[in-house]
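Hi everyone, sorry if this is the wrong subforum. Our group has a chain we'd like a structural model of before ordering constructs, and none of us has done structure prediction before. Sequence below.
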Amino acid sequence: MTTTEQRPLASPFSAASTAADVLAGLDLGGMTAVVTGGYSGLGLETTRALTHAGARVVVPARRPESARSALTQVPGAQVVPMDLADPGSVHAGAARIRELVDRLDLLLAVAGVMATPERRVGPGWEGQFTANHLGHFLLTCELYPLLAAGGARVVVNSSAGHALSDIRWHDPHFRTGYDKWLAYGQAKTANALFAVRLDALGRDDGVRAFALHPGRIITGLQREMTLHEQIERGWVDEEGRVVGAGFKTPSQGAATGLWAATSPLLDGRGGLYLEDCEVARISEPGRPMDDGGVRAYAVDPGAAARLWELSLTATGAAPVLR
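Answer:
Right subforum, don't worry. Here is the predicted structure as tokens:
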């Protein structure tokens, strides 16, 4: 993938499209998907839409009882306990998924955290980088044989927030001082670069990968931000009602990921960053992140390969071989 491929494809959908719009008329019967975070927010909308279209969905969940409760009315969804910030839990959850299915058609990495207080996990890893990137990286490597068997699409939720920070190669775990927004930005850049490298390694097996910005949506993702912070940013009013311009509903927020997972326009393509059910353009440095697009550093193949090696070393994951 090169930056010249980051250009719109004349998608029939838009920022206003919903999950139901994107999957209208599609029969996903016989397909199996894994949706991380598939029991709340955008993940729940994604799970609902996929199962309604006939897919079987496996939902890794840090809070399995809450997940089972949320998915009571979603036939075709099955919960597997998994904490993405705990490598041991990821290994165990992946082993359980391998027992349940012999191939995967889709892996949608929707789970994530944003702007959290400083948290150290595992061997002192920074929490947002771990939960958003390293956990999904390890899960994907663990499930890769199933993905290759299904010629799967892997769809990773990044964010416009990637514009806040490139990878801090000198200090990815913020050992010299923590900033919750820079940590979030780095993790979202990592999500995008992960898709670039996974696509390069997996395409010979039919595995294609995409990253995306789902849009601005108020969901549980903001749970660690105070109401005052959200009011200051113009997102909500004092009653917590969404008042910010350009915000999407959860169903609209899930649409781009579902488009990435199913659109025939993306056949034979991969390693791309998407937004509003379309391929995003390259955004110039210094432009406001809400103007849309993707920074060149977040789709750079060299940086993607470097991050992949860093992640292999950190997690001890089995490498994805071409």
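For your construct planning: Residues 146 and 222 are 33 Å apart (CA to CA). The chain has a mean pLDDT of 92.
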